[in-house]
Write a structure and sequence with these properties.
208 residues, alpha+beta, SMI1/KNR4-like, 8-stranded antiparallel sheet, 8 strands, 31% helix
Amino acid sequence: MSLELFDTHLRDPAPGFRCYACGDRSEIPKLLARVMNVIGKPGSAKAIAAVSKACGATSPVLTRFVELHDGVLLYRDGKSDAAGVEFFEATAWQSRTQEMHESMTEMGFEEDDMPEWFHRGVVIGEIPHSANSLVIQSTGDQAGQVFYCDHDDFRTEPIAQSFEDLLAMIIKDPPAFLYQCGCFTRYSDGKTEIQWIPKEYVADCRGG
């Protein structure tokens, strides 16, 4: 998958999700949640230098991603603070990585027992409101692979074989990706306390 396809997805005219109510076992979509993508500015020389320092030549696609947009927030709700996926600005990767280490240690995970990717990985994003990070392995045999640091269901295997594969997973079926990451993304109808879970992605909601 090329970055052009991902950029096309980012710029869908009126994106949204058909959602079902949490607890509805039939999973029949009854709400159309309109969302937006917040796209960062093209990466500065400082941002590109941060990518080079963190990952070197691990992922040319990631470098190009930052060159095009340094930071992206996907599927932000128009009626709440919910969102689907966030890619951080490159200059924040180092501090976010440190936060991941501190957070997992505070939760009782022993660093000596953690896999190699946890020690060498760089946090590039997260699932908002989950405290779970998207981590790219910077060196070693698994260099370029992307891992999901999930404090509820810790996994040692990668979620994607490359950053490009991660982007492809997201845009192929956004609701399935969000569900796979723990179903943390819940949208609002703006009127009730119901949590609405995305079931189907809609590129253009203008027709209702």
